[in-house]
Write a structure and sequence with these properties.
With 413 residues, the protein is α/β, with parallel strands linked by helices. 32% of the residues lie in helices and 13% in strands. The chain is built from twelve helices and 15 strands. Strand 14 (345-351), helix 11 and strand 15 form a beta-alpha-beta unit. It is elongated and about 75 Å long.
Amino acid sequence: MHPLISLSFQLSVLPSFGFLFDIDGVLVRGRTPIPAARTAFQKLVNSQGQFLVPVVFVTNAGNCLRQKKADQLSHLLGVPISQDQVMMSHSPLRMFKRYHEKCVLVSGQGPLLDIAQDLGFCQPITIDTLREKRPLLDAVDHDRRPNVLSPSAVELPKIEAVVLFGEPVRWETSLQLIIDVLLTSGYPGNPYEQENYPHIPVLACNMDLMWVAEAQSPRFGHGTFMVCLENIYKKITGKDLKYEALMGKPSRLTYQYAEHLIRAQALQRSWEQPIQTLYAVGDNVMTDVYGANLYNRYLQESSRTGPTSLLQAKLSGAGGPAPLPQHHEISLSWENELAGAAAARCRSVLVCTGVYSPQPQVSLHRGDSPARAAFHGHRDFRFDPGLVEPDHVVPDVDAAVDLVFQLENFAPQ
């Protein structure tokens, strides 16, 4: 047989894999596009702009709606992106129906009410609204202290949960008011209670300690804000702040949801070949690599023991103390969709255009590995050397796409 003919039989034209792309540090730095991004995505679409493989953008950002992020990506990459290809850190909150009818305090920035309502929350209240209704609570900034001398008489419903979407703008205000809500069982303005533990539920999205923008060094992320909140709560009460759920990378629930979106794309395009491998392309060892490797470990265990009910799964997934509560906020339809046929493996691909640098930035004690020198993961995730070693390290996202096409013998037509 002619060698070219033989080669054509070995190459695949239908995808049996999908991409999970991080955004910050992989496609952009702040508002500045990374040059390799547009080149990479020209290889992922045909002449009509249709994707040749399933692609989901999995970002820990949470300050906008999916459609806005899809529009930004379309402009950035020069290819049409739909909102169904975008997974924000808060996307899994759609499944937490138990809280959708409750009054919840939301923290972060951007169009918080629009985001919360799009996710299904009917009674969200922002930090700014709470501050307006309870003006005596925010007293750190002397210039913003109210002129009133008596507490506000405005009635507020009981706040039954706190949802942390992302880092806020005025940290001292958000930290103060969230602590007030937790220590008064949802009635901020009341005296702190001595016996209110465990506190009302806290659901947190995006655990990134740092992220990269245009600055030469990484910037504080929502994970840094959470470190502040956790330590203030413990300093005041002597007890650990507990999370009802942790979402965003590296949470296993995030990858299960992302795989669901990958499979939905394959079904929509009538690609009958099963999606066997997910390639998670990111720039952060503690979120992108850790999360992909953690999900790969879960997939390997599931293949040996059979599918695990999502309602019995731990959201943190890596030794974290907070199991998914035994309520039915996750409907059975979602459980069936997310716990269906899973991929065989998830591979981590680390790029060098963001948080990760091939050169160690800090001096290490003798015997320490670079990953062990400082664990930037969230408090509820234990350090595991096997979870912070990427399967592949490449210069940029364009090289990542080339590598995956080579590994998969993929020849798009």
